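Lab meeting, action items carried over

1. Structure of the two-component assembly. Owner: GW. Status: complete.
Input record:
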Amino acid sequence: MAQNKVKDNRAWIGVLPVLLIVAFSGVIPLMTVVNYSVQDILDFNTRFFVGLEWYRETLADPRFVDAFLRQIGFSAAVLLVEIPLGIVIARGMPTDGLRASLLLVLLATPLLIPWNVVGTIWQIYARPDIGLLGVALNELGIAFNYTSEPLHAWLTLLAMDIWHWTSLVALLAFAGLTSVPAACYQAAELDGASKWQVFRFVELPRLKGVLVIAVLLRLMDSFMIYTEPFVLTGGGPGNTTTFLSQYLATMAVGQFDLGPAAAFSVIYFLFILLFSWLFYTSVMRNEDES
Amino acid sequence: MARIRLEDVGFTYPGADAATLAPLAMDISHGEAFSLLGASGAGKTTLLNLLSGILQPTQGRIYFDDVDVTGLPGRERHLAQVFQFPVLYQSMTVGENLAFPLTTRGSNRRRADIDARVKAVAEELNIEGILNRPANGISLFEKQLVAIGRALVRADVSMVLLDEPLTAVEPSVKWRLRQTLKQAQKDLGVTMVYVTHDQTEALTFAERVAVLADGDILQTGSPEDVYRNPAHEFVGHFLGSPGMNFLPVAELPETLQQNVRRQGDPERLGFRPESAKLTAAGTFDLTGVVRSRRVLGTQQGDVISMYGLQCGAHSVFVRSSAAQAVGDSVSIDLRHWVGFRDGIRVGRHGAE
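Predicted assembly:
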């Protein structure tokens, strides 16, 4: 017995590196934020414990609520366009040959561009005075100006995100589609299935896994979007394209309101966690039922 | 159900030098259990794809009941196929899978009719108990049964193609699936074409077997006939385990040689391991020396062994209940043999 006990204890040393890595990369930074979120920090030596005051204040802050709703709207719009569009592109792809390789490279290109460069590209591209898109639209008689029209700013942002990230969904869906055995298509053909039925009953069930990943990635990423809108619109016109992360950055590093910013961060983090969890469990529960 | 007729059907892959399938003819009767047997690379899959409409023949015509279907896509040929591994709609239940082919093609079948048909097929295959289970929650064996059920569910199906349907199933339940398949074929009178490289499966399933090699049908006939009287050396060699024994006629003993030459003057003589009788050295057709003996089992109290014999420069296998030891000289009495010239059967002899 005693010997076993000693062995057991020593085994814990093996876990130590993981513990350290997780602690320094995850737990300690997160707990620092949690710690800040319950204090009013005037300077490093003057701080007061304020309990959940900052949480209450953040949730009641109309600017937070607005940014939060905008964020949900943005993520929803992005997902609604990118997921179906990605699937459509993937289904239209040739499965082999030179054309397939070329298309894959082409698709992957937007994913390789740094985010602030993407923002800059679109910032210039959509400019009504010198940008190709902006000028072209204005020439067509549409008074397009994303710096003054909130709707135009939104559309430009969405177009940019769709341009940037639909490829990811398409590539994932393409990988999923290539794993569908030819016999499954053949069986559906002989059963007389329509094109829609082939998609619904042959492809979609086999795409489910990759699509769950695609939705989760796009949900988390779009919910945390910062760089591109920051470069493209700077949150404007007014606050109409100010999303959560940008508002947070203003609070934390602009105004050094560490306490409220920390509370904000924790709420933000919990929301992403909650959404991802809700999505994942609901999808996977359906899996068991079906 | 339909009669399937192939006229001069040949297929060459684009850019290929040689034809994958030589122009061949095939006639499968209405409601027949037909088997296509061949080694891999013989052209089985190509022929199957021609029947199912995945490929179009580069020459010849295909008729289903005198209707030319050569240019028709698979869905318009009204056939069904069972694949090597179970192909199911995994998001549906077993029952929905079975009903699916009845609900497509804008069919306006009544719900009650569909349910009745699904129930009938499920009963035939003994899967009524799992109709409400999700299709991805059943065993591989059951999945393949469901796939077979989906192929049988449409009463207007012209034929059912079976592409090595037992491949994925565990050996222990293979025979059960084969039994069920055979029974369903009989009960429903469906034309079935069973494609396989496994001779046991082909010979036990089919009323007629076509042996395919190098893109050509070498012989079509009843399992019995194909096994006993191969039209081609390859067929004799390919069927049976071990296959037919072959000996050059010129090296046979004088009396036997004369007898053999009277039957179409063959170059080579073939006989099955079980169509020879072993006795202690005497005056029979052939003589040989026992090189090996492997006991196969007992039959009606006799021990059956597979003997490896040295006959002159050649080795042959004989299945016999004789008790001989390695090194013994024995006589081989041929009860049934087939003579070949240039690989083609020219004569045969024998009772049984």
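2. GW to write a short summary for the group page. Key points so far: The two ends of chain B are 36 Å apart (CA to CA). Chain B touches chain A at residues 52, 54, 73-75, 79-81, 83-85, 87, 89-92, 100-101, 104-105, 134, 147, 150 (CB under 8 Å).
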